[in-house]
Specification:
By secondary structure, this protein is α+β, with helices and mostly antiparallel strands. Helix content is 41%, strand content 19%. It has an 8-stranded mixed beta sheet with strand order 1-11-12-13-16-10-9-4. A 3-stranded antiparallel beta sheet has the order 5-7-6.
Length: 438
């Protein structure tokens, strides 16, 4: 989240950032509530100062009475001088006033915090300005699209022909946007997950984590999914568990409410999880095949880093994700997202898209983002630059390394043969144990 102080001191900058994002947020309401909250605080402080002074006067009177009596004294309220009795009565009234003002301040702070959680991150100054995904910028590409001497099939035809994707039984089990991977198809999916995890652990320096697939509400708030995206999440109301839409959620919260000691950063984590999304925002899109479903697998990359290193670390993360594409030998391109297509928590993002010749389209298989201290503020994750130094908020980065089943789609469609079989990329053969799906 953005700090309240930042919004208070830079309201025009925040409004301009929202315009660039083609988004809205209740900035005026936040500023009005902040002003009201600060006025209440001042009132409470004045009343407490007044009560403290009166308390001293009463204390001085009682001390004087004890000295006269040469010891402890008990004085009934009715026996007190009128001015002191009036002071005590006033103190009781002021105490009631302070409680009322404190209760009102607490309600305002709760409302203010809720509004702050709905404000998106500020785009990095280098992010190109644009209204939506059509304004994203291709920054590089790799590989040449294969030239087929036959008409390549889309995966929704290839899968059933090879008997490795069962759409009908997926719908029978769970409804639309579900499917069953079968035999070599299920094995290929598992091989991809193991291959990607091993690559990132052994060669890119990430530590593997196996987090829960359901998390507490505060984890969703910390990562930026709640309250804004509640309608797109699966939720168990009885226990208030939330099914993870990505491993980014539990990984963000690994160090929630912690102060990391000096020399701890950077921390690199990688995790496989299934991901659960209601896909309400994608209603009517990509209904054929397995490109978009309510449940999918993903290998997630996550970093906790120092503020001064986060821009460089984003470039490294993108390269780590690209390396998966290169090892699989699939043409891909990297896009820098414009302001209008940035994710809620992101300040700068790059998407990686693989070419799928059967579908005839580029498929997003990764989105790598630098969130600066946006998530760290929500989850209260800080670090000490050195011993005795004041804690600072960490910067967090996340990215897919990569997302399934779109990588599976790209393999099936790029490596299909004239006889309908599919060759397994060399990098995956140690994990599959077979070289072709017939």
């Amino acid at each position: 989240m953005l700090s309240l102080q930042f919004i208070r001191e830079n309201p025009d900058l925040v409004r301009e950032a929202l315009d660039k994002r083609n988004d809205t947020a209740p900035i005026d309401d936040i500023l009005e509530l902040d002003e009201e909250r600060r006025e209440l605080l001042q009132q409470v402080e004045r009343l407490r100062a007044w009560r403290k002074n009166i308390s001293r006067e009463i204390g001085s009177f009682m001390q004087s009475e004890r000295e006269k009596a040469s010891g402890p004294v008990i004085i009934e309220l009715s026996q007190l001088p009128q001015d002191i009795a009036d002071r005590i009565a006033e103190m009781d009234k002021v105490g009631d006033q302070i409680k009322q003002l404190d209760d009102k301040r607490a309600r305002i702070e709760e409302e203010l915090n809720d509004l702050l959680l709905r404000v998106p991150n500020i785009p990095h100054p280098s992010v190109p300005v644009g209204k939506d995904e059509t304004d994203n910028v291709v920054v590089r590409s790799w590989g040449q699209a294969r030239k087929f001497d036959f008409k390549p099939l889309p995966h929704w035809d290839l899968g059933p022909k090879l008997d490795i994707i069962d759409f009908e039984r997926g719908v029978k089990l769970s409804g639309t946007r579900f499917y069953v991977l079968k035999g070599p198809g299920a094995h290929l999916q598992r091989a991809l997950i193991s291959f990607m995890l091993d690559l990132h652990i052994r060669e890119h320096g990430y530590t593997e984590m196996y987090p829960p697939f359901m998390v507490k509400r505060e984890c969703m708030v910390g990562s930026g999914n709640l309250p804004k995206f509640a309608d797109n999440l699966y939720h168990d109301e009885e226990d208030d568990f939330w099914f993870v839409p990505t491993a980014e959620v539990p990984l963000t919260n690994l160090h929630r409410d912690e102060i990391l000691p000096p020399a701890t950063l950077p921390l690199y984590y990688v995790a496989y999880t299934p991901c659960f999304r209601r896909e309400k925002m994608a209603a009517g899109k990509d209904t054929r095949g397995i490109k978009r479903g309510h449940q999918f697998d993903k290998v997630e990359l996550y970093k906790f880093v120092t503020p001064e290193s986060s821009d460089e670390e984003l470039g490294k993360m993108v390269n780590d994700a690209e390396e998966v594409c290169r090892r699989l030998g699939i043409p891909y391109r990297v896009l820098e997202l414009c302001t209008g297509d940035l994710g809620f928590a992101s300040t700068k993002s790059y998407d990686i898209e693989m070419w799928a010749p059967g579908c005839g389209e580029w498929l997003e298989v990764s989105s790598c983002s630098n969130c600066w201290d946006f998530q760290a503020r929500r989850a209260n994750i800080r670090f000490r630059p050195k011993e005795g130094a004041r804690p600072q908020f960490v910067h967090t980065l996340n990215g897919s390394g990569l997302a399934l089943p779109r990588v599976l789609i790209a393999i099936l469609e790029n490596y299909q043969q004239p006889d309908g079989s599919v060759i397994i990329p060399e990098a995956l053969r140690p994990y599959t144990g077979f070289e072709v799906i017939k």
